[in-house]
Design goal:
Helix content of chain A: 40-55%
Radius of gyration of chain B: 24 Å
CATH class of the largest domain in chain B: Alpha Beta
Number of helices of chain A: 8
Largest sheet of chain B: 5 strands, mixed
Strand order of the largest sheet of chain B: 12-11-15-13-14
CATH class of the largest domain in chain A: Alpha Beta
Structural class of chain B: alpha/beta
Number of helices of chain B: 23
Distance between the termini of chain A: 15 Å
CATH topology of the largest domain in chain A: Glutaredoxin
Oligomer: heterodimer
Low-confidence stretches of chain B: 1-18, 54-59, 552-557
Number of strands of chain A: 4
Shape of chain A: elongated
Strand content of chain A: 5-15%
Largest interface: A-B, 50 and 59 residues
CATH topology of the largest domain in chain B: Rossmann fold
Helix content of chain B: 40-55%
Distance between the termini of chain B: 42 Å
Number of domains of chain A: 2
Radius of gyration of chain A: 18 Å
Number of domains of chain B: 4
Chain lengths: 185, 557
């Protein structure tokens, strides 16, 4: 998506009237319309559109929420209500690198919670410039691979039978040797 | 049906009447363990060896056999050989020895961790021998991404029969007579539900396939979608015809990305082949199915919350009545069934496909996980006893004795050894204060603590609670506090009494199933493992130390 980086880097309340504001808004609106076309008309498509935006920008910022509200004929509060409810949606950026730790009942019994505590407790790799976490650690309810617990997912790869040492390695390999490699995936 | 060899060289060895198949499992588990790499290596090796093998150009795999702990699985139906934990460097040996010389590669056979015995194929393997795979009949045999494989084995025959030979009333009657009960939830009679939706006033109706099991330890939905998505799609279409709907929704968890992708592909193929769309089989029946992904709220598996998610709202519960069957999606009559329920439908509508002794809708898919030596997903006849599943199929405890099983996820029950004789069916389990839920069976070893497990499930309910009704929103938090105090040893005997009263209160006054059942892991734990709770009291804390690892210090993310 062109200019995606610019949009996500806009201020907390959006573009705040900079010169490029309208162009950025337009880019988001185009994307919303594209997602809307796939989702079909009506409010039923809202969550699908929001998931699409979340995937592109790694968050659904307040400004983007306003634009979505406008497109759906809703109030921004209604959209914010939806965004704040679902674990997969967020107004703030969580980190580009995804690390999901399964804590379903089987993984829990095999130590998934310990792994979660370990990787989240390290608060790994905050960038000094923005203090945003580089790794988004998420607790998953069940990744559906119960025979292989505890499992951890990085992006779309599921890693089976993770122990403490391996979790450490996964975090390190996610962060990569050079900071600029972090957005490669 | 991955690698189809038409080579005369190979078929000379194995006889020439049939194609030689190699089935590489492509479920999430096996993929995580490297199944796709194994598949690619197999293609390359066949090329290099100059074997004249005709290879399907797409990365074709088969669905999950539920034996994930032994993956990646490679099955050779001709020899009834199941190779486990196959890695890239085993590929040459399989091609050379088994395909080339019909020899068994002994070291890749399944060795039972409990007994040390070696098993060759599916027929003798205790994990498979006691199963009765009806709903999962095609799973593990067909390529889920190729509709021709599914239709060759009977997919959409039941839809054809429904549309051409039966009318909606007859179908609903068939479902009623089959005795099919909802797989998941309280086991509501499915035929009755269909009849209510069909008779509800209004022109527009909807059918929803609910793929959000709401159980954090369950692979049933995932397995169906990844292994045989057409069985679910066919079930929804038949349901649509029977209740008079023209639109269906497939409500899926976004976590099951592979399953979602395969369902999407399957829908596209079904449309192209005319099993969905307008004038299906030349009749006046039009039907379309759309996939809707949940954005991570497990609560969305509750029927009324699900409707809110589909309508683009916060996934909170609605008061009932009105029931979704009368006023559901956009206020229209809506039929909501779990994926497993829907996958049962084609079996019922097409009874001639089944053997004379097997009755349709008589199985349940359960997922055994935790402290057992052969965890996995199995389909067993209803009425199979808990100990048969846990001891015979799953091979008993992996580190010593089994202390308990927890059935039915967060709203389920913890049962002790003396209750392992209970048959797995809806009424027997209810008499033990348990319910089958969507079929998760979590096994606890003797080194596990029932209090920690109860706390885990209560924490799940507390976090997933939508917050609409106070008994669930506040009650689960208070439960959690008490359980934490018990876990850390600060609790007194009177706290157990408070715990019991609070559980009853939450059960009686909550609005939806999530709240009503939120306390059942505690109630059944208190009933069946009271001594474990009492051992924590008076400053003693958790004997296993497990409670400390799950206390509220857990990171909130």
């Amino acid at each position: 998506m062109k200019m995606a980086g610019d949009i996500t880097d806009s201020g907390f309340f959006g573009t705040e009237g900079g010169d490029g504001a309208e162009a950025l808004d337009q880019a988001v609106i185009d994307l919303i319309d594209e997602l809307l076309a796939q989702a079909g008309p009506g409010r039923g498509g809202l969550i699908r559109v929001l998931l699409g935006l979340q995937q592109t920008f790694d968050r659904v910022s307040w400004r983007v929420q306003e634009l979505v509200a406008d497109r759906f004929g809703l109030s921004p509060a209604q959209v914010a209500g939806v965004v704040s409810y679902y674990p997969k949606l967020s107004a703030q950026r969580r980190g580009r690198l995804k690390l999901d730790v399964c804590t379903g009942s089987s993984c829990f019994l095999r130590g998934g919670n310990r792994i979660l505590r370990q990787v989240a407790g390290d608060a790994p790799g905050r960038t000094s410039a923005t203090d945003e976490p580089r790794i988004a650690v998420q607790q998953e309810r069940c990744l559906g691979v119960c025979g292989l617990g505890p499992v951890v997912r990085t992006h779309d790869r599921i890693r089976p039978m993770v122990d403490e040492r391996e979790a450490d390695e996964i975090v390190r390999s996610l962060l990569g040797p050079e900071p600029h490699e972090e957005d490669d995936r | 049906m991955t690698l189809i060899s038409t080579s005369h060289q190979l078929s000379a060895v194995v006889g020439d009447q049939d194609l030689l198949e190699i089935r590489v499992c492509g479920g999430s588990g096996c993929v995580a363990l490297g199944a796709l790499e194994v598949l690619a290596a197999m293609r390359r090796a066949a090329d290099i060896a100059g074997v004249d093998v005709e290879i399907d150009p797409r990365p074709g795999v088969v669905g999950c056999r539920g034996f994930c702990s032994q993956g990646p699985l490679v099955y050779l139906p001709r020899f009834d050989l199941l190779y486990c934990r196959v890695q890239i460097n085993d590929v040459d040996e399989i091609l050379e020895h088994t395909l080339g010389r019909s020899e068994v590669v002994e070291r890749l056979l399944f060795v039972d961790p409990a007994s040390g015995r070696q098993y060759r194929g599916l027929a003798d393997n205790p994990f498979f021998a006691k199963q009765e795979r009806q709903v999962l009949a095609r799973c593990g045999i067909v390529d889920p991404e190729n509709i021709d494989h599914a239709t060759a084995l009977g997919a959409y025959d039941a839809l054809r029969r429904s549309l051409l030979e039966l009318d909606p009333v007859q179908i609903i009657d068939l479902i009623k007579r089959s005795g099919l009960q909802e797989r998941g939830g309280q086991g509501f009679p499915v035929g009755l539900k269909w009849a209510v939706v069909a008779e509800a006033p209004g022109e527009i109706r909807y059918v929803v396939g609910n793929g959000e099991g709401g159980d954090p330890g369950l692979t049933v939905d995932r397995t169906l979608l990844e292994g045989d998505p057409h069985s679910v799609i066919e079930g929804i279409a038949i349901a649509g015809f029977a209740v008079g709907a023209r639109e269906g929704r497939l409500f899926l968890r976004s976590e099951h990305s592979l399953g979602v992708a395969r369902a999407e592909r399957a829908l596209g193929q079904a449309r192209r082949q005319g099993y969905l769309g307008t004038a299906i089989f030349g009749t006046s029946f039009d039907f379309e199915i759309e996939i809707c992904e949940n954005a991570g709220a497990s609560m969305g598996g509750e029927e009324t919350a699900l409707l809110n998610v589909l309508q683009g709202r916060r996934g909170v519960a609605r008061p009932r009545p009105p029931f979704p069957a009368v006023s559901g999606l956009w206020g229209r009559p809506t039929l909501i069934n779990s994926l497993e329920t829907l996958a049962n439908i084609p079996l019922i509508v097409q009874p001639e496909q089944l053997g004379p002794e097997s009755v349709p809708a008589s199985t349940k898919i359960v997922c055994v996980s935790g402290a057992v030596s052969r965890p996995g997903l199995v389909e067993v006849p209803l009425g199979t006893r808990i100990h048969e599943v846990v001891d015979e199929i799953a091979g008993g405890g992996c580190d010593g004795e089994i202390l308990a099983v927890h059935l039915g996820g967060p709203g389920g029950a913890t049962l002790g050894r003396d209750q392992f004789d209970t048959p797995i069916d809806f009424s027997s389990l209810r008499s033990q204060g348990a319910n089958l839920g969507s079929g998760g069976i979590v096994v606890l070893g003797t080194d596990s603590c029932p209090v920690a497990l109860a706390r885990f499930f209560v924490a799940f309910c507390a976090e997933e609670s939508c917050g609409t009704c106070p008994p669930c929103r506040i009650g689960t938090k208070v439960l959690l506090n008490i359980l934490d105090r018990i876990g850390s040893g600060e609790a007194k005997a009177s706290d157990l009494h408070r715990l019991e009263k609070l559980c009853q209160h939450i059960r009686r006054t909550s609005m939806c199933e999530l709240g009503r059942n939120a306390s059942s892991s505690v109630t059944t734990g208190l009933c069946n493992f009271r001594d474990a709770y009492e051992a924590h009291l008076g400053g003693q804390g958790c004997p296993t130390g497990e409670c400390e690892t799950v206390s509220s210090e857990n990171p909130k993310i």
